[in-house]
Amino acid sequence: MVRKSKLLGMFIGSLLIGYSSVSFAYNLDPYGGHWEKGVDYTYSIASSISDEGVDSIVLASDQWDTIRKKKFSLEYSGDRNKQNNPMENINGENEVFKIDMGTSQAPANARWKYSGDIITEGDIILNSSRNLSNSSKPSKTAYHVPSIMVHEFGHIIGLDHSDNKDAVMYVSPAGTVKYQLGKDDINGYNAIDW
Ligand SMILES: [Zn+2]
């Protein structure tokens, strides 16, 4: 009897360890936001962003399309919009901007609009007053554009920050190069109420 209960205890212990290592570190958008079924995310990029910047942004959005059994596509429309004031730009179009938001603001910011829990528009702002880099080896003080953009696109999709350091949805410091999705990001994606 004693041996049996010991074994049972060990079994439960290993189950708990297994559970915590899988850990649900991702967080969904607190408002439960998700895109309407069958509606993909098509975005334009501001004409003020360099061709190199466009390549970085497309590389980032493409990461979310690498998910097997993906339920949603992110597509660059090829358009270079001339908008430069995203604050006044709730217009039903998904746009990536680059404006000076000041050094106290994050290097990038996602903004989205809901109708109920359906996300109807998602814009991203790159902050030109922060040190942004398209180089695959950014300096320690620079923000790697593909890495910060894959994170912002994650917000657009309906994910909040993750506690898992391997996730692109983790808030990483300057100098970090991490644009390939982690397991946790994919788990978060699959947990969205598409
Ligand atoms: Zn974030």
Give an account of the 3D structure.
Keywords: Hydrolase, Metal-binding, Protease, Signal, Zinc. This is Peptidase metallopeptidase domain-containing protein. It holds the Pfam family Peptidase_M10. Helix 2 (51-64) packs across helix 3 (145-157). The protein starts with a helix and ends with a helix. The chain has helices at residues 2-22, 51-64, 145-157, 183-191, and strands at 27-28, 34-35, 41-46, 74-81, 94-99, 108-115, 118-127, 132-133, 143-144, 159-160. It has 194 residues and is α/β, with parallel strands linked by helices. The strands form three sheets. Strands 2, 3, 4, 5, 6 and 7 form a six-stranded mixed beta sheet that branches. It has a two-stranded antiparallel ribbon with strand order 1-10. A two-stranded parallel ribbon has the order 8-9. The protein has one domain: Collagenase (Catalytic Domain), CATH 3.40.390.10. The protein is 29% helix and 25% strand. The structure holds zinc ion (ZN). The site of zinc ion (ZN) has 4 residues, from helix 3. Zinc ion binds next to helix 3.
Summarize the structure.
The protein is 29% helix and 25% strand.
**How is the CATH topology named?**
Collagenase (Catalytic Domain)
- Describe the sheet with the most strands: 6 strands, mixed
Going by helix content, strand content and strand pairing, the class is alpha/beta
Question: What small molecules accompany the polymer chains?
Answer: zinc ion
Fraction of residues in H or I helices: 25-40%
Query: How are helices and strands ordered from N to C?
Result: HEEEHEEEEEEHEH
Q: In whole angstroms, how far apart are the ends?
A: 49 Å
- Structural domains: how many: 1
What's the CATH class, please? Alpha Beta
* CATH homology-level superfamily: Collagenase (Catalytic Domain)
Please tally the β strands and state the result.
Answer: 10
Low-confidence stretches: 1-21
Rg calc = 19 Å
Shape: globular
Strand content: 15-25%
CATH architecture: 3-Layer(aba) Sandwich
Q: What is the number of helices?
A: 4
For the residues shown, what is the average pLDDT? 87
